[in-house]
Specification:
Layout (H helix, E strand, L loop, with lengths): L2 H8 L12 E4 L4 E3 L8 E6 L6 H12 L1 H5 L2 E7 L3 H11 L5 E3 L4 H5 L3 E2 L4 E2 L2 E5 L5 E6 L9 H11 L2
Parallel strand pairs: 3-4, 4-5
Antiparallel strand pairs: 1-2, 1-5, 3-8, 6-7, 8-9
Length: 162
C-alpha cells in the first residue's frame, strides 16, 4: 500500500468538503444511507473503535441514554468496524437504542480518513454532515481510549442549527 493511500485513509476529512456517501447495515440488518437525509436534516456520525471495550461500552451506554439530546438536531448513527452480528449482541446486552452501523470492510472509515491501521479499527471521532451533504464539523479524539465530550458535541450542533 502506498504512503499516499495510507495518508488518505488516516487523515480526517476536511470541514467544508463533500461527505462521502455510503450505505451500511445496522445491528438489525436495516440499511442506513447518508443520501436519504440530504436536503432534509443533518447527519451526526459517532465513530467508535470497538464493541465490548470498556470506553466504548461506557460511551455508548451514555449516548443511548441521552439520545434525544442529539436526535433533535439530526439523524444519528454510531459506526465501528464490528459486524452486524456483534453489534446486535452488544446492543441487546446493553439495551442500546441508537443505530450501530457495521463497517467490517473499513470502506467508510477509510473514506472519512478515520482508519487506525496499527489496530485495524477506526479512530474515535464525531462527524456532522449538513443538509447539503457537506462536512460541517469533525472532531477526532487524540486519545482513542478517551470518551468524547458530549456537551461539546451538543454545543456545536446547537451552533450549526442557528
Amino acid at each position: 500500500m502506498s504512503t499516499e493511500i495510507i495518508a488518505q485513509e488516516t487523515t480526517p476529512i476536511a470541514v467544508g468538503g463533500a461527505a462521502p456517501d455510503f450505505r451500511l447495515q445496522d445491528q438489525n440488518g436495516k440499511e442506513f444511507h447518508v443520501g436519504d437525509y440530504l436536503g432534509k436534516k443533518m447527519v451526526i456520525l459517532f465513530f467508535y473503535p470497538l464493541d465490548w471495550s470498556p470506553t466504548c461500552t461506557k460511551e455508548n451506554a451514555c449516548f443511548s441514554q441521552n439520545l434525544s439530546r442529539f436526535e433533535k438536531y439530526g439523524e444519528v448513527a454510531a459506526i465501528s468496524t464490528d459486524s452486524v452480528y456483534c453489534h446486535r449482541a452488544w446492543a441487546e446486552k446493553m439495551g442500546l437504542k441508537h443505530r450501530l452501523l457495521a463497517d467490517m470492510h473499513r470502506t467508510v472509515v477509510k473514506a472519512y480518513g478515520l482508519y487506525f491501521p496499527d489496530a485495524n479499527i477506526n479512530q474515535r471521532a464525531t462527524v456532522v454532515i449538513n443538509k447539503d451533504g457537506k462536512v460541517a464539523w469533525v472532531k477526532v479524539e487524540a486519545d482513542i481510549a478517551k470518551e468524547r465530550d458530549y456537551n461539546e458535541v451538543e454545543a456545536v450542533l446547537a451552533k450549526l442549527t442557528k
